[in-house]
Write a structure and sequence with these properties.
Blueprint (H helix, E strand, L loop, with lengths): L3 H10 L9 E3 L1 H7 L3 E4 L10 H10 L6 E5 L3 H13 L3 E5 L5 H9 L3 E4 L4 H15 L1 E3 L6 H17 L5 E5 L4 H13 L4 E7 L4 H8 L26 H8 L2 E5 L1 H15 L9 H7 L10 E4 L7 H8 L4
Helix pairs in contact: 1-7, 3-4, 3-7, 4-5, 7-8, 8-10, 11-12
Length: 318
Amino acid sequence: MVTLEDVGTAAERIRDMIRITPVKASASLSRLAGGPVWLKCEHRQETGAFKLRGASNAAARLGRVAGVTTASTGNHGRALAHAARQLGLPAVICVSRLVPRNKLQAIEALGAEARVIGASQDEAFEEARRLRRDEGFALIPPFDHPDVIAGQGTLGLEILDQIPDAATIAVPLSGGGLLAGVALAVKGLRPDIRIIGISMERGAAMAASLKAGHPVEVEELETLADSLGGGVGLKNRLTFAMCRDLMDEVILLTEAEIAAGIRHLAVEDGETVEGAAAVGAGAIIAGKLRAEDGPLVLILSGQNIDPDRHAAIVRGEA
């Protein structure tokens, strides 16, 4: 299991490996939500996404290994590549062909190999497992790992330091590593805080698994929130149960609602984010998320979106 103490230890361990990211008030979203809305600007993290926290914590705890590997929809792979470079380790990041080219290039720019395998994250994981089995690599999964969850939980500690009266935190929901870590940290200190998971309607694996009562496979589909793609793993050890026990609500968005969130954050708040990071704003605009009970914090989880695609969305062309 992962504990609040693990999160605190992770915060000390990765202090010099990550940035403390800022928060800012959003006047426009506050008007729409009926109460104060704060943006936790984690998209300004060193690698452009929150994933650096978990990857750094897990990699920093390794002993002697041939290298590190994982399967990723992009941001975790980039984070692990960055952590591996800091620690002087080779890295092979396995991705499916659904991962955008800009994310592959970012991984390669950090000196890691981006190995494209199959049409799903599950297929990419098979190659990562082979590297562990045959070549002695350490496999650091993107979410269902205690050190990864503890690292992501440091984001929750930061939010409480910066917005101590927060009433609700909206968390992008994929495999559940971010939500599990943040919920563990904040509810361990403030049990009254509501944790809302937000995902896309197209292929939301954790939402489907929670509805079924156990981890299930979901077809991976193209979506503006590509970082929220991928399965939760049929043998999920940690994040499924943590999301089930710690999350208060799940909200699902259409592609148009995600695009509206991207557009609003760019035009009204001056923030360039990817689809996964825009789901909180999209939910407010769609009338699915309110801030009437007190300050609402939206985690802007990443900024790694293709610039041309972002420009088209902002212009209303995509």
